[in-house]
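Thread: Modeling a multi-component assembly for a lab meeting

Hi all, long-time lurker, first post. My supervisor asked me to bring a structural picture of a complex we are working on to next week's group meeting, and I have zero experience with this. I have the sequence lines for every component (439 residues in total). Could someone generate the structure of the whole assembly? Inputs are pasted exactly as I received them:
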Amino acid sequence: MLDDEKCLCGSGRIYGICCKPFSGMKIEDYKRERESKNYIKAYYIAIAMLTDYLVEIKKHTNRILKDNPAIGKFILHQDINALSELADRIFCSIPEGNTDNWGERFETIKKLVDAEEWKNECEYYQLLYYDLNNENGKFTEQIEAIAKNIKVDVHTDQRMLELLRSVILPTGELTKLLKLDDILIEKSEDSLMKLKYQFDKAIQLSLVSDNEGAKKIADEVIEKLEKGVPYTEIELYSQDITAQMYEMYYNFEPDRKWLDKALEIRKQMKVDNFNSSGKAKYFSDIAYVNWKLGNYEVAEQHFTTSLGYEENAFAQIYLLDCLVEQNKIKNLKEYLENVEFNTLGVDCIDFLIILGNAAIRLNDTSSIETLKGYLKEINIAVPYYKLCLKELELELEKKSGRIRKILGKLSPLKEYLILQPQFNGMGINLEKIIEDLKK
Ligand SMILES: [Zn+2]
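Re: Modeling a multi-component assembly
Sure thing. I ran the full set together rather than chain by chain. Output:
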């Protein structure tokens, strides 16, 4: 690319004084600058890596796309994954206060890389940008445009949908959320995706504690899935989505055959085609099913393999549980210190519950106190998660002294007492009294 051409990163400057000085830099350079807290330099290196990649795409991929659409499309998909990873990195390194017309940049890149998937990707980052910069008007405008125009197929960007959900979720407006699911169900051209979004709707309902409604929809989906799996053998995405549905259905009907089905599908997947993030996710998915089945040793092996490919909080958290279950851990302190609590997102609920169970099991009083502190900091609107955390809080209270003492004093009566998390207190188990009186 020539020095006086406009830079592909979309800054509007010419290449010679924009990304060229940083061209050819690698991830190690980026990491080094990050670690030295040279955030602005790290940011320019990340942008230049993105630009280098775009130059490659212009050189190779676009040509292959014309000459051999099948191979071209495959390579383009790999390219898009790589671009997303770079874009993620840039977003993590945006120095505070540096807005640097990011939305416009992605607008430029979007025009350059002529692919539907990348268009979704760009819209996602634009949204993130508006969100980070508190441009609420533009944010809402774009969300509405996306919801209206979204094309739904197996490749629909899951993160985009998660983002749409995350915008609606805090408002607690379930009708809006279900409406989004309905739009997606209606717009799905592909029968598997139609089922997937129906299933999402079921999960949404169960999260707001409409268990009956949720189970009904989930049953319908699984019945259709059982009649014949609508995926082709080599379609990794379809296989992954189908396995996910079986795994989730286990929560509606805890029969291990659903998890075995999921494992069966995952074993058929051609893992060599994944990049390292894909492999990390693949092994952590298999590990998680084994964790659910109580195969802690197998789960431990797979979580460890996953972490070998890429660090991820989910695998770290569940690996801890596998170790606790096998009595391989004595001290929770290092885990409390190693997992960065604030970066966990929804995983923080899993994290707290697993740590809580471990602390209770190991009778680790100081960790219990730390956890109680964390619980006070969390504010979650979803009723299902609220209930989970409330139950955990009560369990920790019981372990941490005060309630334990009270329960100790009441021990002769204890078997007639029940804890009622939803009313935040204790109650009397009348059923048990009546039962015993009948004896
Ligand atoms: Zn540039």
